[in-house]
Amino acid sequence: MIVDLLSQGDRQHARALIEGAGLSFEADVEELVGVHEDGVLVGTAARQGDVLKLFAIDPAAQGGGLLGELAGDLLRRAFEAGHESVFVFTKPEYAGSFEQLNFELLATAGQAALLEHGGGLSRYLEAQRGLLRPGKNGAVVVNANPFTLGHRYLVEEAAARCDTLYVFVVEEDRSAFPFELRRRLVAAGCADLQNVKVLGSGHYAVSAQTFPSYFLKRDEDIPALQMEIDLTLFSERIAPFFSLGARFVGHEPYCTTTRQYNETMQQVLPRCGLELQVIERRLVGADQPGGAESDKAFISATRVRQALREEGPSAPVLSQLVPPTTLAILRSAEVQPIIEELRQGQGRHS
Predict the structure, then answer these.
(1) Does the pLDDT at position 249 exceed 80?
(2) How far apart are CA 96 and CA 149, in angstroms?
(3) Dihedral, CA of residue 303, residue 304, residue 309 and residue 310, to nearest 10
(4) Residues 323-329: contacts with CB under 8 Å, at least 24 apart
(5) Deepest of 142, 173, 203, 293, by most Cβ within 10 A of its Cβ?
(6) For position 214, what pLDDT does the model report?
(7) Per-residue confidence band for 343, with pLDDT thresholds at 50, 70 and 90
(8) Sign of dihedral through CA atoms 193, 195, 199, 203?
(9) Is the dihedral of CA 246, 247, 253, 256 positive or negative?
(10) Is the per-residue pLDDT at 194 higher than 50?
(11) For position 262, what pLDDT does the model report?
(12) Which of the pair, 139 or 205, is modelled with greater confidence?
């Protein structure tokens, strides 16, 4: 019988079983469950949101149906919690065991495999079918926290090189500006570009926050592996559906993580048949003559949030950082709670 492991003793036993299997224990989970035989914990697994993880089974109990029982119980709980699709990250050699439980393999990279139960990717793609256009198409993936003139410049430059440009807005809500508002800002800022289609990324932009690393060795480059999984999924499953031939990014002078992501793209995309095109980031006031060289800086959403935090929506610099469509919304009552969170140091980044 599957039971919740709630007591400190139960969790210690689960930790011992997990670490005994050569895995790393992660305490931050919503539910940790297990199966006992003769009072001994022989199997355990956990759920955090729509991700199942920490699967560990005593060697003496392997080969039976214990994995299926644990996965089935956690799937039921995830669906009852409102998740339509559920994901598992595991080692590639274990992917087949989950495929037998009706999980679909989405992507593999190095020592990681990503699988999904529930057919979410197929539903996501089918929902976008009305946006499909033939021709030489490209993509931009943005968080847009919020949408800036830098984003607008990247989209304009990319759209000029494509028949249709798809702008994917990262859907995961871990930013100061919530997804629905970010998508609305992007759509408003690109409304005049006839060959641009704006859409959400669904659950198919893998984040460092949701990528579990319990099954990896401590010396493995976890961020690089997460990026490779994300890009492999995009290149092998998303790009063919939209007939994408290129992905466009802005060059990254500030953020080390984003720069590493761009470098990983240079390795992954070409081997999947996609071209990576890097576009020089726009400078503040680049369309205005004059100005000291020392005053020049690249436009970034970080600078926008800093201006909102320090001076509020009336900050003069905002007109040089964001398009009129974004500025109007930043000065609306709708955004005031976000600005207050930024001022209190609670606003999320990216």
Answers:
(1) yes
(2) 46
(3) 60
(4) 323/147, 323/148, 323/149, 323/152, 323/189, 325/147, 325/185, 325/188, 325/189, 325/191, 326/146, 326/147, 326/148, 326/185, 326/188, 326/189, 329/146, 329/181, 329/184, 329/185, 329/188
(5) 142
(6) 52
(7) very high
(8) negative
(9) negative
(10) yes
(11) 84
(12) 139
pLDDT tens sequence across 118-141: 999 999 999 999 999 999 999 999
Contacts of 46 (CB under 8 A, 6+ apart): 26, 29, 30, 31, 32, 33, 52, 53, 54, 74
- Structural domains present in the chain: 2-119 (3.40.630.30), 124-279 (3.40.50.620), 293-343 (no CATH)
What is the C-alpha to C-alpha distance for residues 306 and 178, in angstroms, rounded to an integer?
A: 17
Q: For residue 263, what pLDDT is reported?
A: 86
Determine phi and psi for 211, rounding to 5 degrees.
Answer: -80, 110
Rg over alpha carbons for the chain, rounded to the nearest Å, is: 23
DSSP per position, 257-280: HHHHHHHHHHHHHHHTT-EEEEEP
Q: How many residues does the chain have?
A: 350
Specify whether the CB–CB gap between 209 and 348 falls below 8 A. no
Cα-Cα-Cα-Cα dihedral of 185, 187, 191, 193, to 10°? 110
pTM of the entire structure?
0.87
pLDDT of residue 210: 45
Strand runs (DSSP E) across 40-111, as ranges?
A: 40-48, 51-57, 86-90, 104-109
Q: Could you give the CA distance from residue 237 to residue 226 in angstroms, rounded to a whole number?
A: 16
Q: SS3 of 25, please? A: coil
SS3 37: strand
Q: Which helix (H) or strand (E) holds 226?
A: helix 222-233
Side chain identity at residue 276, one-letter code: L
Q: Determine contact, residues 233/107, Cβ cutoff 8 Å.
A: yes
Residue 104: how many CB atoms within 10 A of its CB? 16
Inter-residue contact 86 to 78 (CB < 8 Å): yes
Please state, rounded to an integer, the average pLDDT across all residues of the chain: 88
Looking at residue 240, its amino acid is P
By DSSP bridging, strand 137-142 and strand 244-250 are parallel
